[in-house]
Design goal:
heterodimer; A: alpha/beta; Rossmann fold; 3 domains; seven-stranded parallel sheet; 10 strands; 44% helix; globular; B: 138 residues; alpha/beta; five-stranded parallel sheet; 5 helices; 5 strands
Chain lengths: 362, 138
């Protein structure tokens, strides 16, 4: 595995090829990942998300420059959507990141979602691992232009920056569920435009509402798997939950993180030092509050669950006879069978196949 | 099935760039869009790129193809320089194609320098797609 060793040593060509190998999910992808895994866990992963056109890429460009000025190695992963029709993609985030060219302390990689819907690609978490293991101290992940519910970045990053721009909606937008709930830092970008103060005020109002006593119990909760999904429950649940040993969680209400709202004008670099400071403050909070271990645990649990689901699905599809699948699909299309019953039949069939093979072996 | 079949996990990755100083990227965008519709992943880098920027982006993005558009007349200088930088990066197996305003008499020189295909005004985008699919490294 020369490629892995070269990537770990920081060879840029090797890093690039390793990411491709992982993205294409070839036979050697898993082996490479297990080799680099022990070297991961060092980088601060910063997620940048927000609606299309709010200025995410320009902001990433400025953030990367600022981290570089502080002499930190920066990896950037910029995700853009894959066409659901052709499978192709236009990855255009580099257009706004031209300032980063010619600096060997920066590595920028564009990724297409390849069918994933949560705002990231399936391989994004693994590409982060490659950059992390190769020695990049900060990894900035820019999501696709997100709507209200592309919140996968919250499971992937340590610090999530949600980028807003003025004129995107009223106060009701600010209290809706979804993307606004995942922010650790808000950047109100294009702050020279009319309405920036109002947008910032609406966010502050939302955050003030969030400091009510009832929501403070959120910090004194823990994550369990429930109905196949990760959920937060109140502290001290029975020990039979799937998360295993207790995660220490002594985040008291007074020390809970309140997201910071920063106004920026990315094109001019205005507000960038404040944004960097807010990200650093959040990192500090994560480290001093036990929240870092907590988040890492949630992230890894989610990752494991995704991998399990993918592998199970692959195994299952291999076991199902295509002709049975086609005939069931026809019955569903003709309204002779409902999709739930069809799915159960397929499952039952695949188990039966396995048992038959076993008895045949014996 | 080719490893680049539309349903395969592996995609053809193409860097589309405009080296040099002319500011006209309509053609580059049309080609980028056509390649996207052919199922390729197109990394679009925009205007006024130096050969060094292009070679570096190609390396970081690990592309299979580089499509370069030049309308300034500087192609005989810029394109060989890019190919040379790719060679230095051990990326000689990357397919390099060029479009824009390239006089016929310059084509042999560019071929000699390592540009695999040139596509002038009036080219059908499907011809570019076909050329890439036939010549990209397997």
């Amino acid at each position: 595995m020369e490629l892995v060793e070269a990537a770990l040593a920081g060879n840029r060509r090797a890093i690039a090829r390793l990411i491709t190998r992982i993205e294409n999910d070839g036979d050697d992808a898993h082996a490479s990942l297990s080799q680099i895994y022990p070297y991961t866990g060092q980088a601060h992963i910063v997620g940048i998300t927000g609606a299309p056109g709010t200025g995410k890429s320009t902001l990433v460009n400025e953030l990367a420059k600022a981290f570089r000025a502080a002499n930190r190695q920066v990896g950037v992963i910029a995700v853009d959507p894959t066409s659901p029709f052709s499978g192709g993609a236009i990855l255009g985030d580099r257009v706004r990141m031209r300032d980063l060219a010619g600096d060997s302390g920066v590595f920028v990689r564009s990724m297409a979602t390849r069918g994933s819907l949560g705002g990231l690609a399936r391989a994004t978490a693994d590409a982060i691992k490659v950059l992390d293991a190769a020695g990049f101290e900060v990894v900035i992940v820019e999501t696709v232009g997100a709507g209200q519910s592309e919140v996968e970045i919250a499971e992937t990053a340590h610090t999530v920056v949600v980028v807003e721009a003025p004129g995107m909606g009223d106060e009701v937008q600010a209290i809706k569920a979804g993307i606004l709930e995942i922010a650790d830092v808000f950047a109100v970008n294009k702050a020279d435009r009319e309405g920036a103060d109002r947008t910032a005020a609406a966010l502050e109002m939302m955050l003030d509402l969030d400091q009510t006593p009832s929501s403070q119990t959120r910090s004194a909760s823990r994550i369990v798997i429930h109905h196949g999904q990760l959920m937060e429950v109140a502290q001290h649940p029975p020990h039979s939950t799937a998360t295993g040993p207790d995660v220490p969680n002594d985040v008291s209400a007074s020390r809970r993180w309140r997201p910071i709202v920063v106004k920026t004008i990315a094109l001019r670099g205005d507000g960038i030092p404040e944004l960097i400071q807010a990200i650093a403050d959040h990192r500090q909070y994560l480290e001093t509050s036990n929240e870092l271990a907590h988040r890492n645990r949630i992230r890894l649990t989610n990752e494991l669950e995704h991998i399990l689901r993918d592998e199970l699905m692959d195994q299952l599809l291999k076991k199902i006879d295509p002709s049975i699948l086609v005939s069931l699909m026809t019955q569903v299309a003709d309204r002779e069978l409902d999709p739930y019953t069809a799915a159960r039949q397929l499952l039952k069939n695949s188990y039966k196949g396995k048992r038959q093979r076993r008895s045949g072996d014996a | 099935m080719s490893k680049y079949h539309p349903t395969a996990k592996q995609k053809i990755r193409v860097l589309v760039a405009k080296p040099g100083l002319d500011g006209h990227d309509r053609g580059a965008k049309v080609v980028a869009r056509a390649l996207r519709d052919a199922g390729m992943e197109v990394i679009y880098t925009g205007l006024r790129q130096t050969p060094e920027m292009i070679a570096e982006a190609a390396l970081q993005e690990d592309v299979d193809v580089i499509g370069l558009s030049v309308l300034s007349g500087a192609h005989t200088v810029l394109l060989p320089r890019i190919v040379e930088l790719l060679r230095q990066n051990d990326m000689s197996d990357v397919l390099v194609i060029a479009g824009g305003i390239i006089p016929d008499e310059d084509v042999p020189l560019l071929k000699e320098a390592g540009v695999h295909g040139t596509f002038g005004p009036g080219t059908l985008t499907e011809d570019i797609v076909k050329f890439i699919q036939e010549h990209v490294r397997e």
